[in-house]
Structures are given as structure tokens and as C-alpha cells.
Amino acid sequence: MKRQIKKWTLRLTVTGLFIAGLLLVIVLNPILTYAYKTTHNTYNIYHSKPLDSTLFTSLDQAAELLQTSEFYNPKLHLDICLNDGSKYPKLIRALRGQAFAWGFYDKVVLQGTANFADNYIELNGYKWNLTQLLAHEMTHCLQFDKLGFWKSNPVAKIPNWKWEGYAEYLSRQGMDQKDLSVNLARLFATDKNNWEIKFDDSTIAPREYYDYWTLVQYCMDIKKMTYNHILLDTTNEQNVRQEMMNWYENNKSERTTSY
To answer: How many domains does the chain have?
Structure first.
């Protein structure tokens, strides 16, 4: 009986390792599940339907946003995986959960429905600016490229406000997004029960990510910290938020007094 149990345990282990290995091969090689591959600058775009060339504009704009990062690597080649019929996005969703997109290793996988002409991704009735979404997920690839596997999330367990907040900070560079005071005022003016924060172009940011973004923006724009400094700094999230709120209240008083 014991021999039989050991035999079945061994078989299950081997089968599990085989399946895991097969999944890893597919995840690392999107071309296995796509009909086409198109190269644009440093991007390999995987798609199953004819490609809308307006995507190139969004990619180029996202690349410009990334260049402001201290982690920027012009030689980094990224795979852009579209959600246009391939089973690849569904596989990533099964492994990681539902999202507008996922960025990991050297891959950005779109999961919502893309409207390239109008520059947005839609998921469950919400729209995320496509250029900014691409830049957000590409930032995670930059983080992985610079920090390595062991010092990147999820392994390193970097606080989410530092990990996701930096991706939002780099990507949110619209004309109505650069002023921290304006960003905080928008946050406070939005019902706390709302999952999302809306922008003038009808796109959104998840409230949680928006909050993280303001913390990183405060550290980088007001305190003049580098991202490396933020990663090494031991000040907890609550204290950073309190510092930011003190700055906001003082800044608001100064603006009122100046009029």
C-alpha cells in the first residue's frame, strides 16, 4: 500500500512539474498562441488580427514617459500582447486575475477591450487611458529589469504604495495631472465610496492607485527624493501620508493668503 502511495505521489509530482513547465514555456513565448508578430522600435507586438497602426502612437508616447525614469533602459525590448482573440491574455488572467493589463518581466499583456483610435482600454464599463496604461505596465518591466527577480514584487514585498505609486507617477503626466495640489483636491472631492477617480477625458484611475500616486508624487516632486531613495526609506505609509496632508494644508493656506 505504501509503495502504491509513493508511486502515485511521484506520478502526480512529475505531472504537476510538467504542467508548470509547459505553462512557463507558453507564458515566456507568446508567439505560441498568436497568429502574428509585428516589430516596432523596441517592441514586439503579438496579435491575432490585423494590427491597427494607431497603436504605434500610443507606444511611442508611453516610451517618452518612461524616459523620465531613473530606471530607464533604452535597450530593453518588451513584448506587447494584445487581447484580440488569442488565448494568451486569458491564460494570464487565470494565473494572475482580472485587470486592465498586466506588466511583468519583459511583457505587457492587455486584457481589456482596446480602442486604439480613441486611446483607451475598457473593462467592465471603465476606461483607462491607453498610453498611460502602457506606461504604467512598462514601468513594472523597468522595475524588474533594474532590481532583478529577488528584489522585485511579488518576491521582495515592496509596499504597494511604492511599487504601484511609482508606475502611476511615471504614467500620469497629463496637463491636469502634474500639480499635486490639484490631484489631492480631485481625490478629496470624489465620494469615498467610489472605486475610481475620473479625469476630464472620461478615463479613470483606481482610487487605491491614485492614492499611492499622490504619495510618490509628494516624495519626488515636493521632497525631491529619487525612486531609489523612496525604496530605501523606512518611513511608513501612514507617516508619509500625514506629511503630505500637512504640506497640502499649509500650501492651501498660503494660496488663500496670497489672493
So the answer is: 2
